[in-house]
Amino acid sequence: MTQTARKNVAEKIASTLRTAIVKGRLQPGDALPSERELAEKYDVNRSSVREAMKRLEAWGLVKIRQGGATRVADLLLDAGLGLVPALIEAGGEMGMGIMRDLHEVRGLLLGWGAEQAAKKADAASMARLEELAKQLADPKAKAAQLQQLDYDFFQELMLISGNQLLTLLSRVVRDVYFQGAERFLPLYRSDVFDPKHHRRAVMAIRARDAQAASDAMRAHAASALALLEEKAR
Amino acid sequence: MTQTARKNVAEKIASTLRTAIVKGRLQPGDALPSERELAEKYDVNRSSVREAMKRLEAWGLVKIRQGGATRVADLLLDAGLGLVPALIEAGGEMGMGIMRDLHEVRGLLLGWGAEQAAKKADAASMARLEELAKQLADPKAKAAQLQQLDYDFFQELMLISGNQLLTLLSRVVRDVYFQGAERFLPLYRSDVFDPKHHRRAVMAIRARDAQAASDAMRAHAASALALLEEKAR
DNA sequence: GTCAGCTAACTGGTCGGACCAGTTATGACC
DNA sequence: GGTCATAACTGGTCCGACCAGTTAGCTGAC
Asked: What is the model's pTM?
């Protein structure tokens, strides 16, 4: 339990139970203790426990039924993205796996977004992308700044694609991403980060070359992933 | 206000406010009435209002700060996927747009999933895919069954890909999808639904032809999208 | 008049205790 | 042994109080 200082009571309880579920101490189908019992156990009011329960339900980790007990949901069937922070937190192989997956998804979306941008970026968007690429090439930039810029670039592509669902989705990716942000920071150290992919992508988008743009961004994600796996060894 | 009969009190309030926000009656930055005021207005207890607020916060629609007012978040910056049901519900152009986007994302994921499956499907997964393809080709199947099978096929591909994040994501896609399920139902009527893409994909996966598999599933999504847009006219 | 600083009137967060509304297991009755 | 009412659970909602931050307005020094 590190760094849970500033959390709500409900938040603490929710993340405690989430961890218990993810780590398998609570199995799918198991009934959770009743709200009243949990309230007593954690020495908080039942309202707070209820709030925690609602959160777990929103994450798809439990199923609540009035009258019946609250039970752990079948993770494979019902868990949503709310599970991810717990997976990352769990660390080890599990955490590594999910971070690998995250980069894979990012690569997929980046490639598609670049392709779309090549087809329909307007002058204003084009200018924003170029500005971002320029800042990414700044040798004096700090790793954290580069990380942020890289995300901004990603988001700009999603916006250009005009797909609202993906724009919303990129928000989720961001939350997951910056959750374990410091783990990704080494990827942006000045001696390893190379802005060439972004530069190539911007040029391709300007030239309306969808294939090249897509390839460039995929390459970016792939190289990040390769670095990450190298680090893991 | 139709069909809100079986909802929780909190759920009703949350979706009412969500609609207000999505439709722009409440602008980003605007302060919501205080919890006490809302409780009085809707003639419910403050606890219920609080629950609704927590839900809106989880959706990224509002920002809650102890001491300060609860304010509408900047949708472009903070809203997550929880916004989607409201967009669909809003109907009209907006709803149509989001459904179009949904199919686009589905196509992207289907294509990628099929590609991955061609690379790493094992015998058991292969068998499941074939079984699903067979059932999809059943001329006696009802539209709703076909729709479910189509989703199952999608999910199986996500599972095969081994990407946990995408598996979780497909859960979200499912929720969005079956939310407005009846709107998609016409796509599965026996006189329009054609299982050939699934058949082609399965054959390609068996032959380990990633490109062909990907193309087949992309074609499936594209044709569904085309049908959808034709219907909209 | 201007501005710092205090205070009062907000906001959301937590509490406890009550009662309503469903579910489930018990046990008397047939 | 099977059935069915009911008691003892579960979560859902309510009330009213107080704690803990924020904000705005007032006061007073300059």
From this structure: 0.80
